[in-house]
């Protein structure tokens, strides 16, 4: 009977091909457990919508160095 062929490299390819999806599953599990996949709630979106930049009042003097809009 012929002897079993030995892999030419340090790790067999079957083990390497098995480690790729295992590493992906570990990465997904880490992201799920750490909370990176949480979606924004409606209350959080409302808070962000209220924090907009205020518009200048009509008739107010422009800030120093600001150019007036070209209408």
* Radius of gyration over C-alpha positions, nearest whole angstrom: 30 Å
Task: Characterize the biggest β-sheet.
Answer: none
SSE string, helix = H, strand = E?
A: HH
The average pLDDT is 76
Instruction: State the helicity in percent bands.
Output: 40-55%
Question: Strand portion, in percent?
Answer: under 5%
Structural class: mainly alpha
Distance between the termini: 91 Å
Number of E-type strands = 0
The global form is elongated
- Tally the helices: 2
Spans of at least 5 consecutive residues with low confidence = none
Keywords: Membrane, Transmembrane, Transmembrane helix
Transmembrane segments: 14-33
Region (Disordered): 40-71
Can you give me a brief rundown of this structure?
Residues 40-71 are annotated as: Disordered. This protein has 71 residues and is mainly alpha-helical. Helices cover 44% and strands 0% of the residues.
Task: Write structural notes for this entry.
The protein starts with 12 loop residues before the first helix and ends in a 21-residue tail after the last helix. It has 2 helices and no strands. By secondary structure, it is mostly helical. It has a domain at 12-37.
Describe how the helices and strands are arranged.
Elements lengths: L12 H22 L7 H9 L21
């Amino acid at each position: 009977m012929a002897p079993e062929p030995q892999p030419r490299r340090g790790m067999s390819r079957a083990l390497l091909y098995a480690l790729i999806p295992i590493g992906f599953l570990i990465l997904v599990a880490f992201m799920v457990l750490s909370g990176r996949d949480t979606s924004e709630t409606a209350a959080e979106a409302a808070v962000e919508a209220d924090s907009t930049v205020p518009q200048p009042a009509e008739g107010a003097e422009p800030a120093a160095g600001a150019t007036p809009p070209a209408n």
